[in-house]
């Protein structure tokens, strides 16, 4: 599974890109630390940090959208909630011993994040840059 940041993931907005890089870095770390290990104590702190960073990032995007009266805010927020739901299900599943944090388990949230960056985030970034004239 490859997820490491590359410029194809850039949405053209510096602050948002920086935060996306952090998220992807945490996904990469989660993967490298969890690979082949059943020990939750190894990856638990990274999973917690990922949820924290995702929550903070989503809040940041939504504040920017509100400031710019972005018409897509409600729909975008629903996507954020769905993504947080995926991470919550992942965490609960691990709590209940339903599996280990493998590549297979990380595939769905990873795919969802990339799809979100390429779609709704890129759309909003283009709108924000058009409105504010800066990256
Ligand atoms: Fe977003
Ligand atoms: Fe984002």
Topology (elements, then pairings):
Elements: H1 14-34, H2 40-67, H3 73-95, H4 103-132
Bound molecules: fe (ii) ion (2 copies).
Defining traits:
mainly alpha, Four Helix Bundle (Hemerythrin (Met), subunit A), 76% helix, elongated, binds fe (ii) ion
Explain how this protein is built:
The chain has 135 residues and is an all-alpha fold. It has a single domain, classed as Up-down Bundle (Four Helix Bundle (Hemerythrin (Met), subunit A)). The protein contains 4 helices and no strands. The protein is elongated. The two termini are 30 Å apart. The mean pLDDT is 88. One fe (ii) ion (FE2) binds next to helix 1, helix 2 and helix 4.
Q: What characterizes the major β-sheet? A: none
Specify the structural class: mainly alpha
What fraction, in percent, of the residue positions are helical? over 70%
Number of domains: 1
Question: Into which percentage range does the β-strand content fall?
Answer: under 5%
Please write the CATH class name. Mainly Alpha
